[in-house]
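Cont'd.
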Amino acid sequence: MQNKVLMKGNEAIAEAAIIAGCRHYFGYPITPQTEVAAYMAKKMPKIGGTFLQAESEIAAINMVYGVASAGLRVMTSSSSPGISLKSEGLSYLAGADLPAFVVNVQRGGPGLGGIQPSQSDYFQATKGGGHGDYRMIVLAPASVEEMASLTVKGFELADKYRMTSMILADGTMGQMMEPVDLENLKVSKAPEKPWATTGTKMQRKHNIINSLYLKPEELEKGNIERYERYKIVEENEAMYEEYLMDDAEICVVAFGIAARVSKNAINEARSRGIKVGLIRPITLWPFPKAPFDKAKEHIKTFISTELSMGQMIEDVKLATDCKANYVLCNRVGGMIPSPEEVLEQIIKQNGGNK
Amino acid sequence: MVVFDRPHSLIDVPLHYCPGCTHGIVHRLVAETIDELGIEGKTIGIAPVGCSVMAYDYFNCDMIEAAHGRAPAVATGVKRANPENIVFTYQGDGDLASIGMAETVHAAARNENITVIFINNAIYGMTGGQMAPTSLPGQVTQTSPYGRDTKACGFPIKVCEMLKELDGAEYIERVAVNNVKNVKNAKKAIKKAFENQINNKGFSLIEVISSCPTNWGLTPQNALKWIDEKMIPYYPLGVYKDRSKDKE
Amino acid sequence: MKTTELLFSGFGGQGILFAGKVTAYKGLTENKNVSWLPSYGPEMRGGTASCSVIISDDAVGSPIVSHPDCLIALNLPSLDKYESAVKTGGVIIADSSLIERKVERTDVKVYYIPATKLANENNIPTLANMIAVGQMLKALNEYNEDTVLQALKKVVSAKHSDMLDVNLKAVKIGYEY
């Protein structure tokens, strides 16, 4: 543990981004992700990078669009209301097939909502948010270590598939400190980007970064090709953790802080002889299919533990053909379900046997 | 002998602009400038939403199409990523002075080292002639059918007058392209705006008073006259700010 | 396999988060799994501040401490709010110079220490928090001067290395009280 330092999740994201080769950060202040910007403001000038506090979230995401067009690793971070503002840019990034890395440290909504942790931007992140047919790779860390490792992964996947990848964290993940060993983070080299607008040097035809296609057949073709790429992502990039699933009859599904809380409840339930396990999606898009293919053979009840009014539960149902029982165990508005609340639900689904 | 020819940095394709529209002239002035300064190979142009959104098909340099109003933010990203590139935006009045006002003002305030070509024709062209932030008082448009009522819709925004007050901006000039003399001045201004960037001077914005005969409901000739009679009195031409002069 | 859940609470500005951080780093130095989670919000000074610290031989599950093994309460609102949450058999450290009432629970061990008064008397008025940490380590039988010092070195910034000694002094005052 000697290499390990205690770091806030938000700071771990910032440092991991720098390790991943990101030298351009654009942001706008919003709680509870401000530490990312503060860290970048301190670090970037010292390593020849750019930190710029933009005039708005909209400007920030378009600055990201500019750096991504130039073919460099770039990021922005915000929290829920700010991500709504960035959604226009996210759609344009998708339409122009630009790689970018975006962080959403979620807070309660809708509207201005609150500043306490939430997972209620699940739909926004996994189903769109901006207009048009597009996907983002959505990564859901459940520890500070993963805040760092998934940030590196996020940059790599964005480059590999020319997509936006998003860390979907929450206030708890952003604010908590845990030991993290950044020295062992491995980063692959960014691929060549011959499509980038860096100047023709009078040696090639001009490159165009664009999402406008007024001929419907061209626009259709682009969309279909993009979805073929998304299919490859779905087949290859889904990540998840299974915990005590082998003999489980009840399965808790949870990500991020909800998964941490659920593990406590599952351990307590197991000590009482209840056969319960956990599937923790690490990628929310692509939503992992493999563990659910296995689970649907023997799980009677899925308990979706979320800090939302029930968003991921729809994907759990889809992944298991809607054939089991599905129960939502949730708190919203910045409240977090306690291990006791999850345990109570597990016991209830176990026929009330304690 | 000099043969009048198409600038190399302009692609040999028919432009989609309406007959009598002055976008073509401004495109040419920008392209001539790029040629003369020998910067085509390192220039990145950014055209956001508006009539000029498809400028990426016309300029030979690398081009980026941006979201409505966001070109100065995109340009900021491109320039910060590769400061050796020459980055220009080409924006209309709705784009620059309405939806993109914040991006415009802040890029100027930061003295972002970019060149902004601002086409002011007092109307939304691409969407078919709606009231722009620069439409004149009393001007009839699709969305001000009884004439722009300043009580209800406020007054036109004078971009150069506003931006010149910012400490950040390097160079702000308003030109027109409705006669030969004005076109020549416009060329000089545009060239200076690019030279400023090459010399790392910072933010330069050239407002070009342009015509939109189609949506003004005028013949091309009368549209050019309308610029003299209506537009220029409201939007006086000239250098509004030139920090290199301030210092002298 | 042991897990200790700690809850530090007091006014913003009392060094609650700092005390938690030193405690977490001490655990890390001793090769334990640790987590530290602050309450966060608009109150930077004067409001209530609390932080959850977990030190465990196993991986830490939820980082949120709702039923602490040990509550460190540096003001009355903190004791009022969290007294009932402490686990049966748990520990409460209370700054008796700021909290006039006694703990009502009878199923917990209570350690009263006039931390703020001691801090003022020893001319380290900002370090009541670390005096409370010293008392806490004593109550939990976790005092180790070496790992405390190592933890302080991680938390006290290099700029303020002169603060190391006074922090250690404060912890000792609390331990020896």
